[in-house]
Amino acid sequence: xxxxxxxxxxxxxxxxxxxxxxxxxxxHFHVPEDTVLLRWLLQASRGKGPECTSMEITVHFxxxxxxxxxxxxxxxxxNATVRPSYNISITLGSAVQNTTFVNVTTPAAGxxxxxxxxxxxxxxxxxxxxxxxxxxxxxxxxxxxxxTDMPVLEPGVPMPHTVVSPAKPLHVKVFVPKHAAGMxxxxxxxxxxxxxxxxxxxxxxxxxxxxxxQRSLTCTGSINCSLALxxxxxxxxxxxxxxxxxxxNASVKVEMLASFTVCRPGSTSSFLNFISLNxxxxxxxxxxxxxxxxxxGEAPRNASGQQSSCLQSQPVVREDLDVVSxxxxxxxxxxxxxxxxxxxxxxxxxxxxxxxxGSLVVSLLLNKTSVSLANATVAACVSAASPVLSLNATRxxxxxxxxxxxxxxxxxxxxxxxxxxxxxxxxxxxxxxxxCPKGQGECGGAEGRVTVFAYLTxxxxxxxxxxxxxxxxxxxxxYAGCSCKAGWGGWSxxxxxxxxxxxxxxxxxxxxxxxxxxxxxxxxxxxxRFYLVEASVYTYTMFFSTFYHACDQPGVAVMCIMDYDTLQxxxxxxxxxSIWVTILCMARLKKILKYVLFVxxxxxxxxxxxxxxxxxxxxxxPCLFALLIMVTAWVHHGAKRRHCYPSSWKRxxxxxxxxxxxxxxxxxxxxxxxxxxNYYYTHSIWHVxxxxxVAFLLPPRDKHKKPxxxxxxxxxxxxxxxxxxxxxxxxx
Length: 732
Prior knowledge:
It is a single chain. By secondary structure, this protein is an alpha+beta fold. The protein has four domains: about 5-145, Jelly Rolls, CATH 2.60.120.380; about 160-260, GOLD domain (Jelly Rolls); about 310-455, Jelly Rolls (Sandwich), CATH 2.60.120; about 500-695, Rhopdopsin 7-helix transmembrane proteins, CATH 1.20.1070. The chain is built from twelve helices and 32 strands. The strands form seven sheets. Strands 7, 21, 22, 23, 25, 28 and 30 form a seven-stranded mixed sheet that branches. Strands 1, 2, 5, 9 and 11 form a five-stranded antiparallel sheet that branches. A hairpin with a 2-residue loop joins β21 (about 315-320) and β22. α4 (about 500-515) runs parallel beside α11, α5 runs antiparallel to α6 (about 530-550) and α5 (about 520-530) runs parallel beside α11 (about 680-695). The longest helix has 25 residues, at about 615-640. The protein is elongated and about 115 Å long. It comes from Urocynchramus pylzowi. InterPro entries: EGF, NGX6/PGAP6/MYMK.
């Protein structure tokens, strides 16, 4: 046999602390057919700075779809089926780098996904630039060993093969046809080269993670051994590995036989019936009469053989609505007939490779009037790759190499729903059958009707009122995740364990909005001291900060007067410009120079905020430059007057020192104390402290200016003068 090794690599990604699925870094690989060995090379590294500590990285694996993970231990939505993901932990201790290998023999072909993340996020709000986070990098590489000439086992034809040695197992494959209800594998004539009784182990199927349903069979001696499989995967290659358990130098000769039991579909799966149904919906067209005539004759023949068919297939149309959004429409109407004689089968196609990043929702509604037996139950199974063709009370919707999801409706419980999170890329099947407590004989010819709604959505229920559905991308692959707020959690933001009450949400909104009213004293002081430009800036800041925080709130206490991004930009701009004009006002510059710096600084601040809105230097840069100007101006004034400036000790004790203290406390709260839990009151304290510091730091008005002296400020071209001289009139 000829083996070919292949290597696939993707660029490294910077890991994040986990708070929602968007923090997990996803790697998407495609394993080719006839792969006998898969090896993952996982490389994790961290920075060398003092801020880098020991860290544990969790890596999840899954075949067919992104792994469904729950690092926070939150609740999933009701009716959602969750199976734990396969994961390993990589520890970065004293070593800067860690390399780990993960081997998978006979892996399933198709899409494989790896998700990696750091532990739960601490919830602290860090200002960009104040601290340097430690970079934790992760990279996944894939090595595959593929067999180029894997022998094909033809159904119904015995084929002799030789296992060369225990170190070199034999790999063969067989193609499973459509409508295969069962498969029987038989191994016989097992003889070693030393003419001794041989012992071999047969592994059927491929390994899939997180759960693997690979079937094992151990054969000893020359007697025949066989294994029967129900509902093997349709239209797929099934890999079979035979390995010798004997001595190291002995070869083994075996003979293998694979046979299938084919299920005959009923009349509703007829292609001609499907064509005639489309023609009846589209209306009569020229030349359509000749093609519809055979369909009319085909239906009675298939109907007569309905009793011998093992399933009744209903035609389903896949309707693509948007990215990771599909609706399935039944051509015969949403209501399908269900009998006890054979299961009714619906095909839900999810094999495009771009459908595994959403949630598959299947909803069943039983028409109670259609069921003549009160104690009858409609059992349903949703499975991938192959349908469940034998539904009864004892089976749990399992097929040959997968585990399906059971559903049931009855007259006492007429509704049922199933949510499959991140369904694997494959053909999915919905099987329905009418069951009776005393067996199928009790049902007789009874029939029920079930309304089926099936669709694929990016996020179930659009993440609810306390979540936001985000479309995530890894190279060309798209998948969706829910980002929760207001303390809600879970996959679809349905876990209210730590949820904020409506009263808490209203309190948070009131604190963050009404705390901006503390700018009113600063505005009044600015107007009283005739700093009208500064007062206008403070009014602008108070207005947009109030309505930005009213729009930024999670939950129900939200009010947006304009676009969120516009409100955020105006709030940030007003905050920085307020600091800029306050410090320049304290510098006591000449009016023309002060106003030129006002305008020029505002334009530069607007530009820098557009480049990086959350950068710390957008605030620190203007502050430091304005402080430099202020210190230079104060030194100039002091040298000119030959004493300290400001000269009044009362100005320092009662105004400057309290204002500077409030400003430093505000910066400390803003930079080091804010978390996601205490944000609504720590940020409100920031509003109050900044507004109060502005009121203290504004310089007094000029001594020669009188407050509200409007008549002195407004110059007129003509003035009316009063002549106080008395005129003397001569009396004659």
